[in-house]
Amino acid sequence: xxxxxxxxxxxxxxxxxxxxxxxxxxxxxxxxxxxxxxxxxxxxxxxxxxxxxxxxxxxxxxxxxxxxxxxxxxxxxxxxxxxxxxxxxxxxxxxxxxxxxxxxxxxxxxxxxxxxxxxxxxxxxxxxxxxxxxxxxxxxxxxxxxxxxxxxxxxxxxxxxxxxxxxxxxxxxxxxxxxxxxxxxxxxxxxxxxxxxxxxxxxxxxxxxxxxxxxxxxxxxxxxxxxxxxxxxxxxxxxxxxxxxxxxxxxxxxxxxxxxxxxxxxxxxxxxxxxxxxxxxxxxxxxxxxxxxxxxxxxxxxxxxxxxxxxxxxxxxxxxxxxxxxxxxxxxxxxxxxxxxxxxxxxxxxxxxxxxxxxxxxxxxxxxxxxxxxxxxxxxxxxxxxxxxxxxxxxxxxxxxxxxxxxxxxxxxxxxxxxxxxxxxxxxxxxxxxxxxxxxxxxxxxxxxxxxxxxxxxxxxxxxxxxxxxxxxxxxxxxxxxxxxxxxxxxxxxxxxxxxxxxxxxxxxxxxxxxxxxxxxxxxxxxxxxxxxxxxxxxxxxxxxxxxxxxxxxxxxxxxxxxxxxxxxxxxxxxxxxxxxxxxxxxxxxxx
Length: 592
Prior knowledge:
Number of helices: 20
Largest sheet: 7 strands, mixed, barrel
Number of strands: 19
Low-confidence stretches: none
């Protein structure tokens, strides 16, 4: 379920990095002394520390270059296996690693800007050096620049239909790439700096060429790819039309982009043909690690980082020109489509948890449903409830922006809940933001169904498999279901932070008993559900009865693990818990 924190020793190399990146001598000395006092500063000439669970032996020569994908960041693939892995993924049943493609992969003609290319499943349409974490490593970024330099010198080019993005997390990266003369080579391959911070990694990759988007909409089964140096690659997160997304180091992002495909063995296959008509392989481009280390030590200096950090709070003229009124309360504007007053404190009475009666199932989903499935952060579709709302508010489709940008507007985020086009709901006939409405007796949009259930005061539940809510700890993945009227989730297991977020919004997390799930219990999801809490009381890990209108009952475990979580649920969530505390404090102060 993940760890909150990990402890590990630091060493002299850590201190060297802190000095290089502009930390003050006082701060560096403080860090070093603190770790020494804690016996967490490792000196390799002394006795190797002992750990209670034994040693993990790592043979450096056995470590291979890897990527991960096509749908989850922890599905590792060694570089030589990429070609066979992709071929297997195409044929595997639709799931975490499969696409369920039954036909044989064939070349299709792609027309872009009066040019034609033959492409097939595995073609790359987006290559991004991105992520504030993975671009903070000077060795990786300089390595990417050096690989680009060698590629340009050999006359290689990236196919022009591939969208290329260079979005480091810090301006320090562009400073040292310019100083080392490497940025120009990256730009010759199409990697121009587009900004700093979270971009392609969080879904802010922007639109693809309109011709490519049209091509992918027509060829619905085409498995198009992205490759990026990000942290997450869950379905539809990078771009809704790119079905296979792979995480790689910055140098490997460029290498795959040069090849134009993911179904390639970069260790042995030809990447491209050089200007001398000779085959070019990865080994011809891959930078020497010792050379990179020497450049980092000789060419980089703390002054680069100190200069960038000194101006970190300065914006451009547009940002600096924003007029801000200094008032104690924010002046909510009803016409705003970005920031609206949230409804979470609107109820006159504080929510009090109670039995759930006559609830319908809004969704039944399988294993590894992520927060990206529940509450996407990427592009807002030009159709659907969110688009209809924005159009009604006078917003043009070109300005719909992303869910991440509009997360201050609950009207947008509620409509965007489960708007991921790869959501597989067992109550719907196909993927997408669909469910079966037991009020209309037909398949409708999830938001539309939820609105009608809420209008008739019918509670809703979600049924799920293992690891429900894995991925980024996105608060709207709990707020969104709350706004759709979801009162409880019954899952085989939870990602721990998402479970906590559900409780924070007053949504009760329940877990099937060991060995049981929706399949073993023969649930149809068409039943009405009642969840009983004896005498309205809650206790950590208690077993509760789930009663179905069809006469079948089963038991589930209440996943409230602490006394404080019980308090949150009793108040209807953490926000109402805090508000209740405020009211109690005010009442107490007034009485005294």
